[in-house]
Write a structure and sequence with these properties.
The chain is an alpha/beta fold. The chain is about 35% helix and about 20% strand. The chain folds into 2 domains: about 160 residues, 3-Layer(aba) Sandwich (Alpha/beta knot), CATH 3.40.1280.10; about 70 residues, tRNA(m1g37)methyltransferase, domain 2 (Trp Operon Repressor, Chain A, Orthogonal Bundle), CATH 1.10.1270. The longest helix is centred in the C-terminal third of the chain and has 19 residues. About 25% of the residues are buried. The structure holds adenine. Adenine binds next to strand 5.
Length: about 250
């Protein structure tokens, strides 16, 4: 997958994209991340990328020209038809990012992400350039860079070959609409706290059942609204009813 990121602060990406899964994915040629400095597409002496808002108000607005030009220069390089790749603006006004959206984006061979900054981005970028607007949560960051990193991380780890084990993706929180069950590793007893007995039993069916129940209970306790959309069997729906009055042992 090729990922192009348009930003005023390319240096922000250096640390995160040179460690962990990114380093591996890039070294193995599974993903290529190209950073484009929006300021390189400004032509005045001071490389001005922002300006005052029409109509007044505090704060500066990112100008449209450098963003359109940066994007056009990428499009000239890759010669892709419009519609082949999502052009995503990171903004608190976007659709709320989620695991299904990460899956949706992981199917493309190329993504373009545009990081807003200052008080916002000229409206013509959203109206005439981008194909999608994404928010990573109901709070306001000082720029779209951290949001872009979040989106890229969630997407890249889904690409085939990036994680050591594809199977581990199946159990991720939010994959089946549930939060993930608790996990433990050695030692079996730490400071007098034992890991749950069933996990040491070697009985795979029992372990699976326990994990599924724990995932349901955790979701019920922490994010009950997720259960409305989760795919649960009739028996599991009954379990939810029971858990409402008598929770499972941890
Ligand atoms: N830019 C500023 N805040 C943001 C958010 N919550 N999500 C995406 N981009 C942003």
């Amino acid at each position: 997958m090729d990922i192009d990121i348009l930003t005023l602060f390319p240096q922000m990406f250096q640390g995160p994209f040179s460690t962990g899964i990114f380093e591996r994915a890039i070294d193995h040629g599974l993903v290529s991340i190209n950073l484009h400095n929006i300021r390189d597409y400004t032509y005045d002496k001071h490389h001005t990328a922002d300006d005052y808002a029409y109509g007044g108000g505090a704060g500066m607005i990112l100008k449209p020209e450098p963003i359109f030009e940066a994007l056009e220069s990428i499009e000239m390089d890759v010669k892709l038809e419009a519609g082949d790749m999502p052009i995503i603006l990171l903004t608190p006004q976007g659709r709320l990012f989620s695991q299904p959206i990460a899956y949706e984006l992981s199917k493309y061979s190329r993504l373009i992400l545009i990081c807003g900054h200052y008080e916002g981005v000229d409206g013509r970028v959203a109206e005439h350039l981008v194909t999608d607007e994404i928010s990573i949560g109901d709070y306001v960051l000082s720029g779209g860079e951290l949001a872009a990193m979040v989106v890229v991380d969630a997407v890249v780890r889904l690409l085939p070959g990036v994680l050591g084990s594809e199977a581990s993706l199946q159990d991720d929180s939010h994959v089946a609409g549930l939060l993930e069950y608790p996990q433990y590793t050695r030692p079996a007893v730490y400071r007098e706290w034992s890991v749950p007995e069933v996990l040491l039993s070697g009985n795979h069916a029992q372990v699976s059942k326990w994990r599924r129940e724990q995932a349901i209970q955790r979701t019920l306790e922490r994010r009950p609204e997720l259960l409305d959309k989760a795919s649960l069997s009739l028996e599991e729906r009954r379990l939810v009813e029971r858990l409402l009055t008598s929770p499972l042992d941890k």
